Amino acid sequence: MDLEGVSSYCRRNTSFLHGCKYRDTAVLQSAYSKNNTEAPSLDTTFQPSLSEFDPSVIAARHLIVAAATQLIATVQSPVEFLQSHAGRIYDTVTLGFVIDVNIPEILNEAGTQGLHVRQISSITGVESSYLARVLRYLATRHIFKEVSPDVFAHNRPSSMLIKAKSLKAIEEDPISRFDNAAIPAFLHIASDELLNSSVPFTSFVKNPGQASAPFNIAYKTSKKMWEWMEEPGNELSARKITAAMKDTGDAMYPPEIFTSGIDGDALKTNGVVVDVGGGSGLVTLALKKVYPNLRYVIQDLAPTIAAAGKVWDEKDPEAVKIGQVQLQVHNFFTPQPIKDAAVYFLRLIIHDWPDEDARKILTSKHVTEGLGSGPSAPYPLLPNFGAVGAGFFTTLDMALLTMYNGKERTLEEYTQLGRESGWKLEEVKPGKLTAFVFTPV
Ligand SMILES: C[S@@+](CC[C@H](N)C(=O)[O-])C[C@H]1O[C@@H](n2cnc3c(N)ncnc32)[C@H](O)[C@@H]1O
């Protein structure tokens, strides 16, 4: 069913919700045609276009999804509604499985006519009846489509599961299979490290004194996940997490959300920006494009800095060669070696840690980023747009609790954290990722 079909179906069947009405789907359609791109269709693979970041598209999309989700919660039998929620664990499990056995790449190479499960079985070595059941579970939830009985092909959401390498390259070098494939890496982590760590969730929350986080109970380690990743045997986890962090930003967010976090033009030429816990330097890449007169230091733990070196060799080797960008091994619980930086930029760092550790990290930093905020949805929708608005951040909040006993913080919580560590909250720059600007007290 195309967009107009969904819209007219909704109009015919309910007059209840503000969001799921013709106006919003019409806004979507006109925004796509303004950008000369096709409005989304479930039947075609995802083609990124400018329209994805068009503010009117984002606003209309949020309203439609918030309305549709609320409509389901309202009209579905509460028993069925809860049952379907309890079963969502299998969304995680089946997504992890298809990614693990490279089905997205196999179907990509098969093309639009799709492939019978028997043929998928001969490539993966997985029994075809299991494949049919898993793929049907996902196709029933609009991930992949069953083009004829037992024949599956890609659709719009499933096309995002395709990794960045061919099947042959993946088979030749399995450890690198998630490199440059942020979304598959993220979903695989969800079905593996995150799912394992979620088993002791209830036990931890009832008795938080027993370990640092649910992750530590599940993996029988006292190390934080970042240190655990460095142990022999955990190389694939480390590669996946680096991959998931590296490009999630590129795929999900426009670069302005980083660059608007600092007023780089107001800083002195050659002023230093320290990208603390910078991973592969995604933030620095975006900042350097917009503020080329500044110098940058990307700090992280040794294995991540080694991986970052490879990324910069590919993306901007000159910047490292001339010293404009420096990659530095630094543990942020030890004293900051760069004393006179203009800005210490922390993205997605503080939320990984409980308050006590967050206070230790915040000894010499100026900018951090946290919870998204934006306009409220109209009545009768949930003001935070429910699953589509605050939804991702509440999921992230649970994942952070599970992996590190970290948390997404509110403005008040950030203000308090700053106050307790000698920093005054100067400014809040709203956006998809809100930037909180702190200066020393
Ligand atoms: C959630 S990622 C954020 C990466 C990056 N700031 C970004 O926004 O893409 C957290 C980063 O913190 C790093 N990290 C964890 N513990 C650290 C420590 N003790 N010292 C320095 N970096 C650390 C991890 O290696 C990882 O790259």
UniProtKB/TrEMBL annotation:
Keywords linked to the UniProt accession: Methyltransferase, S-adenosyl-L-methionine, Transferase
InterPro entries the record matches: COMT-like, COMT_C, SAM-dependent_MTases_sf, WH-like_DNA-bd_sf, WH_DNA-bd_sf
Any one GO MF annotation of this record: O-methyltransferase activity
KW Chloroplast (keyword) present: no
O-methyltransferase C-terminal domain span: 267-423
GO biological process: methylation
Statement: the UniProt record of this protein carries the keyword Ribosomal protein: no
One Pfam assignment: Methyltransf_2
Protein name: S-adenosyl-L-methionine-dependent methyltransferase
